[in-house]
Amino acid sequence: MNDRKKAKLILIRHGQSTWNADNRFSGWVDIPLNSTGRREAMEAAQKIKEYAIDVCFTSMLMRAKETTAICLTENSDRCEKKSPVFKHDADNPNWHGWDKYDGYIKEEIPIYTSPDLDERYYGDLQGYNKAEMAEEVGKEIVHQWRRSFSTRPPGGESLEDTAARTIPYFQKQILPYLKDGNNVLVSAHGNSLRSIIMHLDNLEESEVPGLELATGIPIVYTVNEEGKIVDKQILE
Ligand SMILES: O=C(O)[C@@H](CO)OP(=O)(O)O
Description:
This protein is α/β, with parallel strands linked by helices. Helix content is 35%, strand content 17%. The chain has a single domain (4-234), classed as Phosphoglycerate mutase-like (Rossmann fold, 3-Layer(aba) Sandwich). It contains 8 helices and 7 strands. Strands 3-4-2-5-1-6-7 form a 7-stranded mixed β-sheet, with helices on both faces. α2 packs across α3. The model has no long low-confidence stretch (mean pLDDT 92). One of its GO terms (biological process) is glycolytic process.
């Protein structure tokens, strides 16, 4: 357990995926990192290695999980003694208990995965090229679909819908660890993190369209024992 006043919340958008590079709507499609994305995650690992990570949270999607695993590789002080272990959902009927083990339980950095941290569902847009879609239906409409708070892309989630799952998850599952003084890494997605940042930074709806997150750049919040943010650094 760390000094309570120094609890860090590290948010990171996954490194570049092959569909980010192709400028395609990804949403829930499970696209891996490309070589640029893996390099970005390695650079992020260097930037955050001074913080001994106690617990991680990530989405169900490979690009966020890969980023988590790479980010922990430089966390050497802890990883020498502690193993990162992905914790799977024991309530899932398809779970066979293959991540269970005895002993060493205090020697792990648990990585909890949840669909509540998945990217915003992009519905009928998934797989389409964003620039080609803008030519077809108009730039303004595509910008609304991508960046407004309440507009739903066809068949998909608005940022407001995404926030309705990410913020309760943050409050119930993540915040208690921060209040207890733990350093927490959250690796997720452009829009699932935008919704959490909107909450943490108390942004107005009108400020949300201007909030852009680069791939692989850690954002480090310092959180006090009441769960309040006392500092924010972007490690560009
Ligand atoms: O394609 C997506 O799922 C997201 C994140 O990459 O795109 P956008 O930035 O357009 O919301």
